[in-house]
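Exercise 7. Predict the joint structure of the components listed below.
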Amino acid sequence: MSTAAVAAGGLLVLLAGHGVLRLTTGRRPLVAYGPTAGTGLCWFAGVALLGALTTLVGVLGGSTRPLPVLGPVLGLVALAGLVPFPARFGRPAPEHARPAPETDGPTRRQVRLGDTVAAILAVAVTVLIAVQSAGIPTRSNDEYAIWVLRARMLSQLGRLDSAVFADTATGYQHQEYPLFLPALFAWFDGWAGRPSDAAAHVAIAALVGATVTVAGAVLTRLAGPAPALVSLLLVLSLPTVLSVQSLQLMADLPVFGYALCLALVLALWLSRPDAGEAWLAAAAVLAAGAIGTKAEGQLFAGSALLVTLALAPGRRRGVLVVIAAAGLVGFLPWHAYAYVHHLRSWVANGTTLSAAHLREVLPWAETVARSMVQQWPGGAGWGLVLLVALVPAAALAIRAGHGRLVVFVVAVVALDVAVLYAQYVATALGPPSDPVAARLLTGQLRVTVYRVALVPAALLALAVPVFAGLGLRGRPAPAEAAAEPVPAAPGEVSDPGPGPATGARGRSPASVPRTPRRRSPGPAPPPRPRASPAAAGPRPPAASC
Amino acid sequence: MPAGRGTRVVAVGLLVLAAVLALVRLPGELSTQSDTAATGRAMPTVASIPVQDSIGAAGTEFLALVRRSVPAHQPVRVVQPITSVSRLESRISGQPGVCGYAATGLTYYWLAYALVPHPMTCDPDARWTLYARVAPPAPLPPGASVYARSGTWTLVRR
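Solution:
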C-alpha cells in the first residue's frame, strides 16, 4: 500500500510538472521537447513547483503535509495541464515569429536515436540507483544534520517551525539553505504515511534519471547522438557521482542536475535558433530548481544566465531577464523567511566580506587553489588527458563555426570556478597560522570540492565529445549563400539535395555542396525548378522534435 | 560545408578517447557504488534509528525509548558534555553543553534527527530534558524527576 501511495505521489509531481510546462509554453511537453526530455523536464518542473509551494505554505504558517493544501494545488495544476487548450493558446508561433531555421542540426532520425538512447540510459541509471540505495538509512552527517532533518520536521511536525529552522542555527547546519529538497522528501513521507528514507532515495534516483534524459536530449540536438551518449557516460563516470553521491540524501546531485541541464539548455538556445522557444520555459524551470535546491545553485544559475545574457543577440536578451526573474520567484518566500529570522549566508555576510577578514584570509589563496586542483572531480589521471583534449576539441568547434558555444562553456566554467574559489578563501575562519582554521579549511576542501564543483567539471568533461561532434558535422554554409538560387547548367539536372532532414550526417539542402553536379543515370527527366531552402519552406525543426 | 578528412580523423579520435575514458571509469564507479550501498544497507538499526558507532546500540535504544515516551511533538532539550565553542558556531552566547552550544555538534544533530518528530528546544523550562552522556544535576530542579535512565543517558521530566 505504501509503495503504491508513494508511486501515486510521484505521479502527481510528474503531472504537476507537466502542467507547469504546458501552461507556460502552451504546448504539450512531450511534443515540445520530445518524450525523453519532456518526461525529465516534467519531473524537474514538478519537484520545483512542489518545493516552491511547500516553502510558500510553510512561510505563511500553513501545513507542509500533502493535505490540505499541497496535494490539491498540485492536482489542480496537473489537471490544468491535461485539459485540451483552446486552439488559439495551443497553436505554435506563427511562421514569421519563428527564428530562422538552422541548417546544420541533427536529422529527425538522429534526434530520435539520441532521445531513445538517453531514455534507456536514464531508466537504467534510475533503477540502478533506486535498487542500490533504497535500503540505506540516513547515516552521513550532512544527511541527518541538514537535509533529512528538515524533511522530517516538515513531514512530522507538518509546519515550518522556527525552533528547528532558526533557533539552533550554527554555521555547520547552513540554516539558510532553501527547502526544495526537504520538501520533496517530506512529500513522500506524507504519501508513505511514515518517514521513508527509501522513498527519498527513489526521488533522488529519479532526479538523476531526469538529468540524464534532459542532458541527453539537449546534447543530441546540439551535437548529435554519438557525442551525446559519450557525454552522458563521461558525466556518469565522474568520480563519486554514482559511487557515493547517488546513494546519499543530499542536495549536491539534484542541484547538479538542475544546473547542468540549465547550462545545456541555454547553450542549445544560444547555438541553435531553431531549437524552439519552449526551451526557454524549461530554462526558467531549471533555474528555479537550481536556485531553490542549494545555495550553490544560485551561483550556477546566475553564471549560466549571465554568460548567456552577454552572448545572446540584443533582441533576445529581454527573455533571459524574464527567465531569471521566474527562477527567483519560487525562492523569494524562503529569502524573506531567512531575512526575518536572521539566517545569514555562511559564505557571503558582513564578516566574510569585511576588508579586515579578507586581508587575514588572503594568504590561503594558494592553498585553496592547490587543493581545488587536487580535489577536482575527475581531475586526476585520465581526467587530465581529457582536459588536454579539450584544446583541440575547442579548436575544431571554433573552426566549424561554433565559437560562441565554446566561449559560453569556457565562460560559465571560469565564472563558477572563480566564485567557488573565492568563497573557499573568504570562508576560512582565520589566517594560515591558526591551526583550527587550517584544519577546518582543509577538511572543508576535502569533503566539499568533489561535490560542489560537479557542474563546471561536468561541463568541461562533456565539452570534449560535444565540440568534437560539432567539428565532425562541419561548418554550416552561410545562410545567404545557401538561399541563393543556383542556375542549372544547360542539359544538367538540378539536384534538389537530399531533402529536408535526410542528408548524410544531417546535412540539409543548404549544406549540400553545389558542385560538382551529379548527372542522373538514364534518360534525363524534365527539368524541375531549382529547390532552394527558401522555396522549399523552412526545414522542419528537428531540434524541437 | 562538410568537415575535411583531417578534421574528421581528429574529431573521431577525440570522441573515441572520451568514450574510452568513460568506459574505463564506469566499472570502477559501479563496483564502488555496489560496495558502498551494501555497507549502508548492512547498517544495524534500532526501531528504525540507525546505530551510529559514536552512539552505540545501547544509546540508540535509549533514543528510541525517548522518541516513544515523549508525547507527540513535545520538544526536547538536550544536555551534552561541555566542549570548547566550535568555530562554526554562529550563536554568540548560550549555556555551554545545552542545545548544542559548546558541545559536540555532530552528536547534537544526530540526536535531533533521531528524536524526530520531537523538535529540539533551548528553553530551560522545557518539560523534557535528555542528558546525553552527562550526569543530570543533583539534586534535580524542583518538580523534575528521572523518567528513564540507561548508563550515561538520562531522560528527565518536569
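Discussion. The radius of gyration of chain A is 25 Å.
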